[in-house]
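Help needed: design a sequence for this.
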């Protein structure tokens, strides 16, 4: 589980699969860490979907060209992307399919998962049987969802590094407070005092400061260090 989910930080922002509340939309967002792929077959038509993390339109189009070269004999390469936030830039393409049956369903899958900085392309090999508009919408939706199911999605949180300085008497209480809030300890230095460096989401600053001051009777010292983005991945903590 994400270390920040333990304290409910992420759940409070990403309740369900809708977009985050306006007041926290700038503080965190969901995106693709590692792309994935998926395939479905509908009435002998193959739908091959691939997901890529992107931050610029040029990256998306470069991936599209790669896909077209890889599946050069396919009839359609339909796609959608969302880049940026507040608001994000959205584009889509049906690439020859009936209007609204391919690009829009792919985009709706991305929206439904509240993702940004992501490009999804679905390649179709026609199987000889017409699917109709409803069948196409379902097939492109299912293919995009299948690819995202094999994609590593992360929540990037904006916050800062906080250095907490305490004597050994207050150490246990501080560790308890940090543990209760699910905050990541980056480093601990033991000398005549103890210095703990911890990652704090922006929205936790006030509550954490209050808890630390009350828990140590005002004895803990706090130094706010650099701002950063961080996320929990399958490989561990991602910090930048």
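Sure. Designed sequence:
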């Amino acid at each position: 589980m994400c270390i920040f989910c333990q304290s409910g930080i992420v759940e409070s922002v990403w309740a369900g699969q809708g977009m985050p509340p306006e007041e926290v939309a700038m503080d965190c967002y969901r995106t693709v860490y590692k792309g994935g792929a998926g395939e479905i077959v509908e009435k002998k038509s193959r739908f091959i979907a691939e997901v890529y993390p992107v931050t610029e339109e040029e990256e998306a189009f470069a991936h599209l060209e790669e896909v077209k070269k890889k599946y050069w004999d396919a009839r359609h390469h339909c796609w959608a992307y969302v880049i940026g936030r507040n608001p994000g830039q959205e584009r889509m393409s049906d690439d020859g399919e009936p209007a609204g049956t391919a690009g829009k369903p792919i985009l709706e899958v991305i929206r439904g998962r509240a993702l940004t900085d992501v490009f999804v392309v679905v390649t179709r090999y026609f199987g000889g049987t017409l699917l109709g508009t409803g069948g196409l919408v379902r097939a492109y939706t299912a293919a995009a969802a299948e690819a995202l199911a094999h994609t590593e999605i992360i929540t990037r949180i904006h916050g800062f590094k906080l250095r907490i300085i305490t004597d050994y008497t207050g150490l246990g209480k501080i560790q308890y407070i940090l543990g209760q809030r699910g905050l990541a300890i980056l480093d601990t230095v033991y000398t005549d005092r103890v210095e703990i460096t911890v990652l704090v989401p922006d929205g936790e600053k006030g509550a954490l400061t209050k808890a630390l001051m009350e828990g140590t009777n005002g004895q803990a010292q706090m130094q706010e260090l650099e701002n950063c983005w961080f996320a929990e991945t399958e490989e561990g903590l991602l910090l930048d």
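The CA atoms of residues 27 and 49 lie 30 Å apart.
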